[in-house]
Every structure is written in C-alpha cells, then in structure tokens.
Design goal:
The chain is an alpha/beta fold and 440 residues long. 39% of the residues lie in helices and 22% in strands. It contains 18 helices and 18 strands.
Length: 440
C-alpha cells in the first residue's frame, strides 16, 4: 500500500485551474504531497485516497494563490501617511518617515504586518522591494509568505546608509543569506531602485553582478511622465533604452509600473522577455497615469498585477487590483475588451511567469507547488453563481478567503494565521509607530 498523501482537499465546488486551457472544474479534489500537487481529479476518483489530513472544500472555490508582482511590504507601517500628493510629494513625505524608523528590526516588523495582510487576503507570493532585505525576508518567512526580495541599489547612501561598495558586497553574498533564512523557494533577485536613482554606470555593474549570480532584476520603470522626461533630458533615452544599453534587460527583468512605455519600449521589452507589474490602484491614486495593459500583452509582454506599497495604495488587496484592472480596460478600450481569463491569469499564472516562477506556481496542476486559496461561496454577495470568472473578478473579496496554503503548508486556517499571534503583532506595530507622531 502506498503512503498516504499529506493533505487531501476534497469536494471543491469549483477548482479554477488557470491551466493552459483556463479550465474550471466542478466537484474536484486535490492531493498534496511534499508541498506539491500530486493528484487533481474528480472527487469521486479520489474518495478512497488515504491522507494524513483532510480539508473539506464543500461550498468553496479553490484557486491558485494570488501573486503580487510589485509591492513594498514594510511600508504597511506608513498606511495613510502621504495623502493628496503625486509621486514626488509621496516620496518626500514617505522617505522622511522611513528615515526616522526603518532600521532592520522595524523593517522586519512592517514586513510581518504586510505579509499577514497579504496571506489573509489570498496572496501567497509577493515581489517585495525594500530596504534591509535580509530582515524583511526573515519577517515574511516567519509569517509563511513566499517572499521574493533582493538587495536594493541607490547611487547615494539612502535611508539604509549604505555606500555603493557596501551594496555590491551585500549582493555578492545574497544567495547565502537566502539559504540561511530558508522559507518557500524564491528566485534570486537584485533590485536597483530605478533609472533615475541609479546611474547608467551603476546599472551596468548591477547587470554584470546579476549575470555572475544568475539573478533576475526588478526596478521601477516609466512610472510617471516626469520620470521619462527627466531621463530623456539627462541621457537622451527612455528608461527602457537605458535598461537595454546597460545590460539590465540581458537578465530576466520585471518592471514596476511601466505606465508610460512607448511602442518602441514595448518592442525592446518583448524581444528581451521583460515583464511588467501593473499597479492600477497606486497609479490612479498618485495620478501617475493608466498603463496600457492590453497593448503590453498584445506586444508579447508578460504582465502581472501588483498593489505597490501600502503608503501609496493603502492596502495589499489583490482582489481590488483585479477589479480595477478590469474596469480600466472597460474605460480605456471597451467593456467587450475585458478578458476575465486574462485578468485572473495576470494575478496568477502569468504573474508567476512575470516573477520567474512559472514552472512552480500560478496554476492548479499536478507537479506544481501547492500555493492555493479557498474562498467561501456561502455568502449573499456570491449568490447565485452564473459566471465563475466574473465572481472572482467583480464580486469576491479578500474577506471571502478562509484558508491559504503555501508550498502545501496551511498558513491561514479559518481566517487565522497558523504561524504568528496576530494580536501580539498588531500591538508591536502600534507601539513602534508612536515615534512618528513627532514628525507628522
């Protein structure tokens, strides 16, 4: 007799696979062994499968965990700190607050808060760019999140006080840091902030180190028209052309935002395999503009979705992001151009490819890692169900997520973290941010 599977999720009313055919299955069960999906079949076929643990998904929808492809989790501590400003005003206010409190310990604390919010709302993976990445990764792993992060690069010492050579030195040992911290698998990333805070010479050096480490790259690109104008004035190029000419696009690269990309930029990116994290909530709130979601995809660019940080978007709700992304297509193109599969894929399977994890997560398929969420369908606002995709994009919300698994580990059970004490975490957060009252 074969050994029992670790977990059997039984009788899902719907299983939204997000496979290559975008198939939705009814009354299906999923078996998980060693953190991976080992069986995915009609419930009747798996009813006699022996399992160490069982989860009854009756009246639940099971989907891949959502992937937030651009955020700054520790900035959860600054939620509501910079209101009524554009990107420049936002940076001025937020960088002052970060300079006052964001040491290693506080960066870890803020990331624990952000990671908990993400998981409770059905997000299982985040691409997190922030200061003190070893500390932020430690915090995220403690809460159970699949947390992609990496060393940050600025030309200047910045809020973390690091000189350029110190940034290089940290990057060279980053893989060893990840091994020490552990947690769910993530690819290796280097994260220069942007083409306006990193010179072409320094970006060239980052690209060379990424090649040496077999690392991917994440940076902000063309978030505002003012940024594009500044780079054009300084270097006679678009930010994408700077990335191309410095070798950044020689590695797998994902842009944060990409609001103001030209047709030529998109051609360069498609040729290089460069991806984009579309952050509609932050872009709208800061008045940065509306990214060309469908045009990017039509150009052959893989597009994921992101929230940006809580001090610009105010929450980490990927259900809200899916909804905004869909509504913006209706506004910029037409309601008939809203492809619900496309929206959901941007938050799952396509988002996984964008962040470099397409072979591991983003869909419910045998062999994939078990990053899954359960949504309670026994709700007035989710009844009746005429269109499952419309339900996910336009009706379901983060409060409907009851259970979350990351690499097969049950990290959220019945809307409660299995990893940390939420009351204790919130108390520590509220105590730490009291110091900000002196600079408000």
């Amino acid at each position: 007799m074969s050994a029992p599977v670790d977990l059997l999720i039984i009788n899902a009313k719907y299983a939204v696979s997000v496979n290559s055919k975008n198939e939705i299955f009814e009354k299906y069960s999923i078996a998980i062994t060693d953190g991976k999906i080992s069986h995915f079949a009609p419930a009747d076929e798996l009813r006699n499968l022996e399992a160490t643990k069982t989860f009854d998904a009756t009246n639940h929808l099971i989907s891949p965990g959502l992937i937030n492809s651009h955020t700054h989790l520790a900035m959860s501590l600054l939620r509501g700190w910079a209101e009524g400003v554009d990107l420049q005003g936002f940076l001025e206010r937020v960088w002052a607050a970060e300079g006052a409190i964001m040491d290693d310990a506080t960066s870890q604390l803020g990331t624990e808060l952000g990671a908990l919010e993400a998981l409770l709302s059905g997000t299982t993976t985040t691409m997190d760019m922030y200061l003190n990445p070893a500390a932020t990764h430690t915090g995220a792993v403690r809460v159970g999140l699949r947390h992609i992060c990496g060393p940050i690069f600025f030309d200047f010492p910045g809020l973390d006080g690091l000189e350029w050579q110190e940034r290089i030195d940290r990057a060279l040992v980053w893989k060893q840091e990840l091994e020490k911290i552990g947690g769910p698998y993530i690819p290796t990333y280097l994260m220069p902030h942007s083409t306006y805070t990193d010179s072409p010479e320094h970006l060239t050096e980052v690209a060379q180190i990424a090649q040496q480490l077999d690392a991917s790259i994440h940076l902000h690109v063309s978030e505002t028209q003012a940024e594009n104008d500044d780079i054009r004035t300084r270097f006679g190029k678009t930010p994408t052309e700077v990335c191309r000419d410095t070798g950044i696009l020689g590695r797998h690269t994902i842009y944060g935002h990409g609001v103001h990309l030209s047709d030529s930029d998109m051609q360069i990116m498609a040729k290089a395999g460069t991806a984009v994290a579309h952050c509609p909530g932050s872009n709208l709130k800061l008045g940065s503009g509306i990214a060309k979601f469908r045009k990017m995809i039509g150009s052959g660019i893989k597009v994921g979705l992101g929230t940006d940080g809580c001090s610009s978007s105010n929450d980490l709700d990927m259900f809200a992001v899916m909804r905004m992304a869909a509504h913006l297509v209706s506004f910029t193109d037409s309601p008939a151009d809203v492809d619900l599969n496309q929206i959901i894929r941007a938050a799952t399977a396509d988002g996984a490819v964008a962040v470099g994890l397409g072979d591991r997560i983003g869909s419910i398929e045998v062999g994939k890692e078990a990053d899954l969420i359960a949504i309670d369908l026994a709700q007035a606002h989710l009844t009746p169900i005429h269109n499952v995709l419309a339900l996910l994009v336009f009706a379901a919300g983060r409060g409907d997520v009851t259970d979350v698994w990351v690499a097969g580990e049950h990290v959220i059970s019945d809307r409660t973290s299995t990893k940390i004490d939420q009351i204790d975490l919130l108390a520590r957060v509220n105590a730490r941010v009291k110091v900000l009252a002196d600079i408000q």
